[in-house]
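User: Is it possible to get a 3D structure for a protein together with its bound compound? The compound here is D-glutamic acid. I've pasted both below.
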Amino acid sequence: MADTRPIGFFDSGVGGLTVLREAQLRLPGESTIYLGDSARHPYGTRSDEEVVHFASELAEALIDEGVKVIVIACNTATAVALPALRTRYPETPFIGVIRPGAAAAALSTRNGRIGVLATAATVRSGAYFTAIKDENPALHIVQVAASELVPLIEQGEHGSAALRSAVAQALLPLTSIDPSQRVDTLLLGCTHFPFAREAFASCFGDTVAIVDSATAAAGTLREVLAVNQLEAPGSSRGTAADAGHAGHTAPEHVAVTPTHRLLTTGDTAQFRQLAVSLFGSERAVETIEQYKVPARG
Ligand code: DGL
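Assistant: Yes, that's possible. Here is the predicted structure of the complex:
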């Protein structure tokens, strides 16, 4: 059974577009709906209750749009709200970004030392610490909170001197220590951070592998669609359990043109500009009015 319903993505703002881009590269036949809550970003400095509340509203909006699966393209919302969302909406499969990112970082390190740069809420949750230790208890993890980078990235300051200096400052706990103790893998534990990948790389040179949860989560998404038989026509590659004989490999003749929608609770022009800078081509952005609430409630 091929499933033409779209895949839903949400984030506190533009950060999850980094996950969306990776997903679209890997799953070109799938339709997508992305919802960015730019009017209420950042999430990383909010209370857990607020994050769960906002994440539930966004998930519900996507479910109302008829999505078949939801990617929580936000580390903060994954760290704080994933169990609550799975409990509240049992019919919808949710994919978080923490476990895939943790697995990728654990596989990447050679010296057993991983740096995790994330928002204050993600660090506070301990979700990355637990997930990386689950992969390999012997690994040493240094977590650094850098919530202050999120508003800069949301404002489009990607290559600016202000952002470079803020990145260098944020990385000091990792760069200012004895070289023998340094991490060899930096996990970008916030989906906004890949926008500033060059700034991170320039602080370390090529001595550190930079891993992001966006790429890793897109790989997990493909697996989840396959095992749940939710793939769009023409997308199936079969699974280890079923090479396609159970009927979820789409017939070759079914032609589907995927559709892609971008929605924001914030300013559409600014959102569009950031989307264009990431995707390299024009993107239409719709507004979703009902969540236009004061940024701090
Ligand atoms: N992009 C989000 C994350 O991955 C949230 C950043 C924020 O709003 O503070 O954590």
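The domain at 99-213 is CATH 3.40.50.1860 (Rossmann fold). Residues 245-253 have pLDDT under 50 and may be disordered.
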